[in-house]
Amino acid sequence: MSEFLKRTISGLLFVIVLVGAIYIGHITFFIIFLAVMVATLLEFYHLGVKAKIHPQALMGIFIGIALFTWSYFYSSGRIERITIFGFIPILISIFVIELYRHHQKPMQNISFTLFGLIYIALPFSLLNFIAINGSSFRMEYNPNLLLGLLFLVWANDTGAYIVGVNLGKHKMIPRISPKKSWEGFVGGIATTLVVAWIIAGIFNEISLRHWLVLGAITALMAVLGDLVESMFKRSIGVKDSGKFLPGHGGLLDRFDALIMTIPVAYAYMEVIMII
């Protein structure tokens, strides 16, 4: 089986599972994205080990699970905002634990542990606020905005890949990503905006103008997310973050664009669109 066919089949199956879990309901959405977040955090902390850093992986995963779960119940209207202060002693415990670990680089260990939460757990937790809007009386689950955002990220990745492979000549940052080209970047923008226009006719929760803005945000942040992750991997000397998907690498390789897109897209939705 060719590498391209292997990549296509595994990617398609993953998309079907992800979209299906989102559409079935908020419980399957919670389970699948919690699992993806945990696995992505594991890959990230494993990269730290390869860089001869010893992050508190178990503690980081525990806090990531707690943050994702808190955002799910808070966005559902089932708990109060004040419960977020419960994370303060949990975060402080990272510093306390490091006192007893006897590693030579405690600052790097603590920094890498916290960075994993900011870089991965926080963006995934924001997905709950995009898909769920509830109160103490009723929870409203609407996956369309989340699905639209995922489709935009995938459209950008596909468009950039096809145009870059066939027309790419001018490299963006060859020292970090030798295959990333300006032609592919433009192709990704064009594809994402076209898909945003199509999505606007299917998911009418927001207007065409807002979908086009989200498309532009996605096109810019997705390539940044890919370059940032490539920078991390190159500094460590690895090609892929893991081997979760044949032909695709690890989950961090698949979600690097979404991770960087979510915070900016959510900020736009919250401030401009008032979701």
Summarize this structure briefly:
The chain contains nine helices and two strands; from the N terminus they run H-H-H-H-H-E-E-H-H-H-H.
Task: List key phrases describing it.
73% helix; 9 helices; 2 strands; two-stranded antiparallel sheet; 275 residues; mainly alpha
Largest sheet, order of strands side by side?
A: 1-2
Largest sheet: 2 strands, antiparallel
Q: Bin the strand percentage.
A: under 5%
- Pairing-aware structural class of the strands and helices? mainly alpha
Radius of gyration: 19 Å
Count of individual helical segments = 9
List strands and helices in order, with pairings:
Elements: H1 3-24, H2 26-50, H3 57-75, H4 87-99, H5 106-131, E1 132-134, E2 139-141, H6 144-167, H7 182-200, H8 208-236, H9 251-273
Antiparallel strand pairs: 1-2
Report on the architecture of this protein.
This protein has 275 residues and is mainly α. The chain has a two-stranded antiparallel sheet. It folds into two domains: 26-141, no CATH class; 143-275, no CATH class. The protein contains nine helices and two strands, in the order H-H-H-H-H-E-E-H-H-H-H. The N and C termini lie far apart (45 Å). It has helices at 3-24, 26-50, 57-75, 87-99, 106-131, 144-167, 182-200, 208-236, 251-273, and strands at 132-134, 139-141.
